[in-house]
Amino acid sequence: MTAPDRIPTRPQPPGPQPPDPVLSDGVRPRLARHVRMSFCRTRQRHILQLPETVVVLRGSGASILELCDGRRTVAEIVAELGLRFGTVPDDEVLRFLSRLVARRWVELAGETTDG
Predict the structure, then answer these.
(1) 4 with 46: CB under 8 angstroms?
(2) Which of 38, 63, 96, 114 gets the highest tally of CB atoms within 10 A of its CB?
(3) Residue 55 belongs to a domain with what CATH number?
């Protein structure tokens, strides 16, 4: 089992790379409908349950995903993590979420508008 915050990267061929899923501060991530997060008492860790797959979360992965409720924006998630843990590299949060969006474990709601 691979923890999503430590997803191995595939070697990339030289040349232009395809763009990562677009994540901006205004999108609102949430777990995909076929994904559930729960706490596994046996492993003493949070897990993601997918069809025919269980992913053990390590590090800050569970903290990030518990805030992905479809109401909070990426900027609000980073701010909340900053309050909890001090400094949080927002680029790492974006990379983590981008990988989960690419795997279709996380869905993105549209940009928020002011006013």
Answers:
(1) no
(2) 96
(3) 1.10.10.1150
Q: Is residue 1 part of a domain?
A: no
Q: Which of 113, 29, 13 has the alpha carbon at shortest distance from 76?
A: 29
pTM over 0.85: no
Q: Which two tokens stand for residue 100?
A: 């989960």
What range defines the domain where residue 88 resides?
25-104
Q: Is 106 exposed, middle or buried (0-12, 13-18, 19+ CB in 10 A)?
A: buried
- What does the alpha-carbon distance between residue 78 and residue 93 come to, in Å, rounded to a whole number? 7
Reduce the DSSP state of residue 54 to 3 states and report it: strand
Does 17 map to a domain? no
The set of residues, in sequence order, having a beta carbon less than 8 Å from that of 4 and lying 6+ positions away, is: 48, 55, 57, 61, 96, 99, 100, 103, 105
- 91 occurs within a structural domain: yes
Rounded CA separation 12/17 (Å): 8
pLDDT in the model for residue 109: 84
Is 10 part of a structural domain of the chain? no
What would the pLDDT profile of 8-19 be if each residue is shown by its tens digit?
Answer: 444 545 554 444
